[in-house]
Amino acid sequence: MSAPGSSPPPSFLKELTHTSAYSHMVKVPNLSSNMRLPNPEAGSRASRPGAEDNVPNRFELFLLSDGEKKVTEETDTRIPSTSVFTFNKEDHTLGNMLRARLLQSPHVLFSGYKVPHPLFSSFILRVQTDGTLTPRQALVQACKDLVTDLGLLSREFTKEWELRKMVGESVDGGITGI
Questions:
Q1: Which of these, 149, 143, 57, lies nearest to 95 by C-alpha position?
Q2: CA distance 124 to 74
Q3: C-alpha dihedral sign at 18, 22, 24, 29
Q4: pLDDT tens per residue across span 17-43
Q5: In this structure, what DSSP letter does residue 25 have?
Q6: What's the mean pLDDT in 94-118?
Q7: Residue 163 and residue 156: Cα distance in Å, rounded?
Q8: Whole-number Å distance between alpha carbons of 56 and 67
């Protein structure tokens, strides 16, 4: 029996109830894959959906959907030699590395990034140059420099790891201290 003044739930909601960890929620046709509505027959938990109900699927954090671009550029008309780049399916890791590397360039006056919302894997990078380079050229050069730096880091780490293994094996026949 429904409360006075409220209508009973639509019949399609009764047919679509789940018997999983999300049994207090129902999946509704024609809504996004992770959007659920409270199940009126589930009890008290239905009125308090948990945080896990809002979390997107893991693959949505790094796989681009059809027609989605990895990076888009928008020129800022208010400030000369400034562009705003939007990176999709990336997070603070790349944002902070690019910002720091851009600031090492003598032609970059400003570089900063922000993540609009923690549940969506994207960030916005604003770059302002002195005019000798375009913001796009500065970003491309920063990316090339980062690839070079990370390659060097990988080679140095591998070399030290192999040396450590050789030293450990020569002392007692096995790897120690790892």
A1: 143
A2: 11
A3: negative
A4: 444 444 444 444 554 455 555 555 555
A5: E
A6: 96
A7: 11
A8: 19
Picking from 2, 42, 134, the residue whose alpha carbon sits closest to that of residue 81 is 134
Is pLDDT larger for residue 175 or for residue 129? 129
DSSP codes of every residue in 78-147: SSTTEEEEEEES--HHHHHHHHHHHHTSTTEEEEEEE-S-TTS-EEEEEEEE-SSS-HHHHHHHHHHHHH
pLDDT interval class at 146 (50, 70, 90): very high
Size of the chain, expressed as the number of residues it contains: 178
Q: What is the pLDDT of residue 48?
A: 63
Helix axes 92-103, 135-172, angle to 10 degrees: 110
Q: Tally Cβ neighbours within 10 Å of residue 61.
A: 15
Smallest CA-to-CA distance from 142 within 79, 82, 97 is with 97
Sign of CA dihedral 98, 100, 104, 105: positive
pLDDT of residue 4: 55
Give pLDDT tens digits for 58-101. Answer: 777 778 888 989 999 999 999 999 999 999 999 999 999 999 99
- Neighbouring CB atoms inside 10 A of 140's CB total 12
170 C-beta neighbours (distance < 10 Å), count: 8
